[in-house]
Amino acid sequence: MKRDFQLPDIIRSIGEDMKTIWISDVLNGKFDGQNIELKGWVKRSRGSNKIRFLVLRDSTGAIQCVGKKDTLGEDAFEQLKSALIESSIIINGMVNPDERADGGYELVIQSVEIIGPVNPKTPFPITESAMAAADGGETEFLLDNRHLYLRTSRMTTMLKIRSSVFGAIHSYFRNQDFIEYQAPNFVAGAVEGGSTLFEVPYFPTEKNPERKAYLTQSWQLYAEAAMPALERLYTIAPSFRAEKSRTRRHLTEFWHAEMEVAWANNQEIMSYGEGVVRKIATTLLEERSAELESLDRDLETIARYADSKFPRIRYDEAVETLQGMGVEIEWGQDLDYSKEKVLTQDFDVPHFLTHYPKIAKPFYHRVDPDDENYVLCHDLLAPEGYGEIIGGGERTWSEEEILARIDEEGTPREPYQFYIDTRTYGGVPHGGFGLGVDRVCSWLTGADHIREVIPFPRDSRRITP
Ligand code: ATP
Ligand code: MG
Questions:
Q1: For ligand 1, which residues put their CB under 6 angstroms from it?
Q2: How far is the CA of 193 from the centre of ligand 1 (A)?
Q3: DSSP letter at 137?
Q4: Atom of ligand 1 nearest to the CA of 433
Q5: Last residue of a domain, which of 68, 89, 124?
Q6: In this structure, are strands 186-187 and 312-314 parallel, antiparallel, or unpaired?
Q7: Domain count along the chain
Q8: pTM listed for this prediction
Q9: Which of 93, 160, 180, 269 is the most exposed place for a label (fewest CB within 10 A)?
């Protein structure tokens, strides 16, 4: 096809024959007065038997397109009329700056081709009234139709922000020479305790006809095995936890950014945690300000997270604060969501809570040599009532101590033999943390529920679609 305009260099091509013009570039004024071809999906369509207004969307934005029967002719106008919501179409037209149009531009249609039609008998189910009923949240209907809901501007926005969060984590660690490292997802033992383990039947053997594997709850133990090889390592991978209780911040499959670093103490590990969270906030301001604003997120708040130091307080202090607020909590209890929510409601920036009681934490947490009732660990609690986004700390690193801690807990040694070996041969002080990527996304977007920031959420009730 002969084109009557010069291909500007901003056109990003998908292969040589498929030059695509993005709607965002049109809205940025790069094609004023030119005849162009746009590819996308019908977001809205209205009009009369003489003139049609159609909003075309692609992954970058939406533009109003207008077609008149007089200029298009009967057949083309009928084509235009029959392009129902979410049909995919190719439109040729002239870019016309127009202040009255949303986004300041209108495309005057010259021809239209329907690529993937929508049958009038089965119209696109996610209507504006279905969205209004959900009021920015998610109804069962929207969850059932998640595969189609992904196309709405709210979900598209969440997915773009999510992508920037993943990118920020990768660049933070890579810029500091961390090595990306992968652990198996089928494992033989628990990290976070047996109650949230997913069992999978796994090829019976003669010795073990009932053999089971488990889905990993964390990359950590396998990362510790590679710590003497790589010293600084990280991953972003799914973790699986059979969380029975339904909360706004738990998924059964979530994305876990974890790091492990040799020769580091609790304070240094917290500095990495603060660093990565601030990097995520900075990246969102650079890459996704418009998206955050479209979710009514205050950019000043995100800038405060990007620019502040995060205070570090001891568990004991937090318990006293909570008790002072009239919350019932006993020393030695882990903080559950209800307590973290109260505690963080008035925080203006994330806070680290350090030195939890030993009795609240599993064997791999290193006991504080200054007071054996505590372990050298930390949780990072996000403000605005969001609560824990990071859990980390120093690991029990000497062979003698790890054996004592495993026995003390009554945990069988056998599945952890490989882990014990990492101490038997040249153990060194080290530690790391795990950050819940979906939790960070939901906090920074201001979402009501963690489900809103992941394409296909998995929880105790739902594994479809
Ligand atoms: P919680 O007490 O909130 O259940 P946890 O202490 O069990 O979390 P960790 O084992 O410390 O969680 O995991 C590290 C991080 O992974 C947490 O700080 C959190 O951000 C995230 N995370 C843990 N469990 C889930 C889950 N079920 N869904 C989403 N994110 C999770
Ligand atoms: Mg934790």
A1: 192, 241, 243, 250-251, 254, 256, 388-391, 434-436, 438-439
A2: 12
A3: S
A4: 14
A5: 124
A6: unpaired
A7: 2
A8: 0.94
A9: 180
